[in-house]
Amino acid sequence: MSGMKKRMLVVGGTGYLGQHLLQGLSDAFDLAFTYHSHLPKLLLDSIPHSLAFRVDLQTGQGLDAIAQSFGQPDFVVNCAALSIPRACEADPAASMSINVPSSLLRWLSTFSEKEYLFIHLSTDQVYEGVKSFYKEEDETKPVNVYGKSKVAAEQFIHENCSNFAILRSSIIIGPQTVSPLPKSLLIQWIDGVLLKGDEVQFFDDEFRCPIYVKDVVKIIQALTDKWVTEGKQMRLLLNAGGPDRVSRAQMAETVAHVRGYNTSLIKSTEVLSPPQIYPWISVSWLRC
């Protein structure tokens, strides 16, 4: 982009993708980001020219401060979500109120200048998962509350936003963030358990298409460039996954080969094991 930098607001900037976006796009945009409860000093120090705002996405509290200090963003990337399936199952109402960006889009509608691009992170869990390699035109039929909330979000965006790009992302993998996250990252967790030398069970009947986090950042930047360059309405729905369809067991085997661990530690099991053994699983046959 040439001339003055465009303004980008990253909603959920302290999460995994949010932090990588802020790091990867700090030279290309004037950046602001939202956080829910805790502002990591390590993150703020790494992007000193950005602005941080505490926002409650359920109520919209805190959004007006962004307008006053940062102004209207040209791009809004919504990475915020209640994304742990068991948490969504435990509180479906919270899942819907956080994952459907109603307060965010209502706030954006108050600006006199309506031209902005809304980029929303959805999930491959909007699909039923009974086949492989879904296409964007395939029917959405989620099997868990998280997937249902993301379908509702997509519908809300279609009805209330003029310019948008929705990315139905598979598992996002890659390096740790500058401010480490409290929850485990999948590949790092696999590495940690195999390093201990204990036998571990991994599902071999649930498949996903993991995507590298910096590729997601590149996709988002490409979408912003396309919207600015072409200067026309954008209403896109895209699946975002990596090239390989793999199970958890296959992911573990790959980590073991790369790191030199004993592959005999990896024991395959099925998702459809007795629920008392895996009470936190929301059963689905996911892929991208």
From TrEMBL:
<dbReference type="InterPro" id="IPR036291">
    <property type="entry name" value="NAD(P)-bd_dom_sf"/>
</dbReference>
<dbReference type="InterPro" id="IPR029903">
    <property type="entry name" value="RmlD-like-bd"/>
</dbReference>
<dbReference type="Pfam" id="PF04321">
    <property type="entry name" value="RmlD_sub_bind"/>
</dbReference>
<protein>
    <submittedName>
        <fullName>Methionine adenosyltransferase 2 subunit beta isoform X2</fullName>
    </submittedName>
</protein>
<feature type="domain" description="RmlD-like substrate binding">
    <location>
        <begin position="7"/>
        <end position="270"/>
    </location>
</feature>
